[in-house]
Amino acid sequence: MESLQPGMILSPVFVETKQQFNGTLIVSTVRRSYPRERMEAVAADGVTQYDGIVIKRNDWGTYMDIGCEAPGLLLAGQERRFGKFWMDSEPQTGGQGPAALLSAEENIARKLPLGACSPVYVWHKSVRSGRIYLGLDPRPERGTSLDDLAVDGVTPIAGMVTKNSDRGVFVDVGCELLGLVSRKEMDVDDRSLDKLSAGDVIQVYARRRSAAFGRLALGLIAESRPRIKASAVIADVHYQGVVVSVQHGSAFIDIHCEVTGVLPDTAPQYVAKNEQSPTLARGDRVLVKPLTFDASMDRWRLELIEVMSQTYHEHGPSVLHVTQIQSQTAEHKHLRMDSVIGGTVKMTSRNYKDLLQSWIQVRLGRSLSNTDIYYDSQLADGCWRAAVMLARPSAEGFDQDLLTFHGQPFPKKALSEQSAAKQAL
Description:
25 strands
């Protein structure tokens, strides 16, 4: 490596790994004896054994080469399968099921030093982010793929809580993706979620999925009727829907389908009967028409027909002015912070966490992963003190220097996190 100088031509080189989350390719001048496996071909069932070699360790965990185009990660504190997996009174799922919990392995650095080999199992993967999450133990049973999971809102699924956070409760349902019972779901009771902790076995219902973005939305209550498949949605037919989110100038609509629809920046303008510019916020009921299915987003692109009913907007985190919907251009990557604040999404009460997320996503030019922004909150002397850490990929690809910004102490954790996000902005 010492003999390499800028401008030198190396020929040939071979791509060893690629990292979707930071756009990094790692190359070598040495040709492998056999090709690496594609991400799509990796069996994320938790029981197929891979031979892993430790190649790096940092605060996120232990990275291992499993012969794939992307490295696998043993998350710190989540290396071994948790001891007791199921309670005596199991949810009605017809068996024990593959869901389980990963917990810490003591002295992982001593047991698995750099260069060490160990059998590992792929528990989760996200093709879009290019991440593979490993375990040193197999699942109790073979896991299922996202395509084979019943995402209809009415089929009970056995799951095990892995984490309880401000976003909601993360649940392992024995699938290649972790599910999330979001606190933003309309029928979710925060008090019910607060009682759940890691290791609890619960019954959940899969409501929405997105293979493109690596997301699986769960609910604790069965819905009144099954959700329809994405392939069963009929274009140019009107559907009633509910706005579930407004982000980055687009409104995301639940039309009781396994995937959400989106009113993108190129949606036609709509003016209400009173000829005032309507706004859309979470909870609004709308009438929409599916136009085309966007496979890259795993969503239906919609056209707004009518705003049927609206929630009270004054204190909502964000609203979308429908007549201000505009097409995005590549220039968005160079927007200043004030143009993001004053753009198509009008912030009626400043949500600095949303603004920080929007700003970073615009600068990166891609969807955010769970390692781009991380909040750490500690309770001391009756006050929460939060810090936000922003991962900055290095030129080598794996190293991520954490930029840390501290918020002011507040009695509520959410307020301290908003303060930390404000400092970061």
